[in-house]
Amino acid sequence: MERRVVKFGGSNLRTPEDIARVIKAVRRYEPPVVFVVSALYGVTDKLVQAVEKVKRDEAAIERVLGALYRAHERIVDGYIEDADERKRVLAAMDERVRKLGKYLLGVHCLEDIPNCADDMLLSYGERLSSLLVVSILNHHGIPCREMLPEDIGLVTDGEYGNATIDLGVSAKNLRRALGGNERYVVPGFYGISRE
């Protein structure tokens, strides 16, 4: 079955108003379609800066996490009117932010960051963005499903910081995981190693 893949980069996710344009664009595509989303504009840069800050300052972890949460919360508040649904989405967002906090604490304790942890940390911009986008689309009557690379089996060559997709291994996984007649939202930027 032929399917389209549509990418929304960070420049499409710069302001809360950009989300309205994303919703409008997504409505134009009938399933099956895969929407790949980047981190909100500037989030990856903030994560890169955060790594350096938390190496020296443990208190920086909560400041970074709070800023990330608030940036995403502002968009949820603007696009999900139902209080119960907003609470559910924000709880899921908080869970991802707290998991990021564990990685940042590890960076602080080590005063360094191994390449694998660096890639994991930087993936959280996309992980938060995909959760945000799929939640808003579903709320606005556009049924879709979030699929993370680790759930899909999006395997790379494992070269941290500069990985390339292993199409030979991933093609079968992608067909199986994204083979339905659905709309999928997938975070861009990262994949998994064979290990």
Describe what you observe in this structure.
This protein has 195 residues and is an alpha/beta fold. The chain is 58% helix and 9% strand. The protein has 8 helices and 4 strands, in the order E-H-E-H-H-H-H-H-E-H-H-E. It has helices spanning 16-27, 43-56, 59-79, 83-110, 115-122, 124-139, 149-152, 167-177; strands at 4-8, 33-37, 145-146, 183-187. A 4-stranded parallel β-sheet has the order 1-2-4-3. Helix 1 links the parallel strand 1 and strand 2. Helix 3 runs antiparallel to helix 4, helix 3 (59-79) runs parallel beside helix 6 (124-139) and helix 4 packs antiparallel against helix 6 (124-139). The chain starts with a strand and ends in an 8-residue tail after the last strand. The mean pLDDT is 93.
List the defining traits of the structure above.
single chain, 195 residues, alpha/beta, 8 helices, 4 strands
Topology of this protein?
Blueprint: E1 4-8, H1 16-27, E2 33-37, H2 43-56, H3 59-79, H4 83-110, H5 115-122, H6 124-139, E3 145-146, H7 149-152, H8 167-177, E4 183-187
Parallel strand pairs: 1-2, 2-4, 3-4
Helix pairs in contact: 2-3, 2-4, 3-4, 3-6, 4-6
Total number of strands = 4
Strand content: 5-15%
* CA-CA gap between termini: 30 Å
Largest sheet: 4 strands, parallel
> Could you list the spans in which at least 5 consecutive residues all have pLDDT below 50?
none
User: Strand order, biggest sheet?
Assistant: 1-2-4-3
Name the helicity range.
Answer: 55-70%
Overall, the morphology is: globular
Rg on CA atoms, Å: 17 Å
Give the count of helical stretches: 8
